[in-house]
Amino acid sequence: MRVDGQGSLNVPPGFLWGASTAAHQVEGGNVGNDWWEAENASPPFVPERSGDACDSYHRYGEDIAIVADAGLNAYRFSLEWSRIEPSPGHFSRAALDHYRRMIDACLARGVTPVVTLHHFTMPQWFVHAGHWTAPDAADLFARYCSFVLPILREGVPWAFTINEPNIHAAVMALRAGATVPNFLPPPAPPVVEGLIAAHRAARAVLADVPGLRTGWTVANLVMQPAAPEHGPAADAMRWTYEDQFLAESTADDVVGVQCYSRLLIGASGVVPPVGAATTQMGWEYYPAALGLALRHVAAQSAGTPMLVTENGIATADDEERIRYTRGALTGLAAALHDGLDVRGYLHWSLLDNFEWAEGYRPTFGLVAVDRTTFARTPKPSLRWLGSVARTGELE
Ligand code: BGC
Fold first, then answer.
1. For 84-153, where are the E strands, in sequence order?
2. Catalytic residue among 27, 164, 242, 248
3. Which pLDDT does position 6 carry in this prediction?
4. Nearest residue CA, atom 5 of ligand 1?
5. Which residues line ligand 1 (CB under 6 A)?
6. Ligand 1 centre distance from Cα of residue 229 (Å)
7. Which CATH number is 79's domain given?
8. pLDDT digits over 333-350, tens only?
9. What span, in angstroms and rounded, lies between the C-alpha atoms of 365 and 19?
10. How many domains does the chain have?
């Protein structure tokens, strides 16, 4: 693999080129999960409600057609546990059929479905029963995974159990009242243990599907010391926030690499990116992060195959999105050139969608979504990524 100086990416055969979404951020009307509850609490946990989101629960066919028409060959989406199991032990066959139709729609258009079983949101009943720290949490998650097995048998080659357990756990710590300056509080050890147990239990269930490759995705934070003397502080934080989760991936079939920027670490934790160009999220504009993340993940997960399941930028300037993505893909090409096992690149996100605590303000999408009519308008960056996928050329 090499970047040949003319901007060619020599990706391996079967490389996935696509885009990602997550259920709560695009579906709309996810009334049974903990985020909906927090969005609608008084006072609400976030400034804006997800509401109808992008109405992708009904418009998924259009979304998948946009992916295929752009020349991409993969779509990552998540199943909403609270729809599939709206109350403990009551499973909705209609909800499962919905996700089966999504998988079918992908396959009909030559798009590889990449399925996440849990992307940040939990059924309200699961949270009220003690979430990941309840003694039966792993069994409950595994039972949900068993129920969805039949649809995974129908042509899904890649499944991720839990999205970014590191960020999910840190957000749970925040919601429980913990704070640190300039960043999310550290994941609480009992929550981390619960997530690891749930991941292992889920993988054991999913192993029943022949050929299905499973793992989890980890947020790669690219923590760097702000000055040489902060090396030990950066190492300690990296373990707490990231590497303890990557250590689990050594036993997995795949690890999802999710990376946007870097974090500089000083004596008292994260140092804000003063003076650097930043994105709509306030994160440093740093396309080199993806290449560094791939190298870090490869080292930490002992060479487990990697799939980039998220990378992108929140910006209103689509030219900047193209520049950022070109920079990130240059790092990916160099990693391939050096022999790293990268199986695909899925951009975050297909759509301008609900960005959690930031509401709809940040726009990560390759496709704009009208907030009133839900009309989708592909941006030039979608055409650009599609042409990279088709030609293997970055220019
Ligand atoms: C998450 C996405 C999120 C994105 C941008 C990742 O942490 O998996 O749900 O929208 O980053 O913040």
1. 112-116
2. 164
3. 53
4. 355
5. 22, 25, 163-164, 167, 219, 258, 310, 348, 355
6. 31
7. 3.20.20.80
8. 999 999 999 999 999 999
9. 9
10. 1
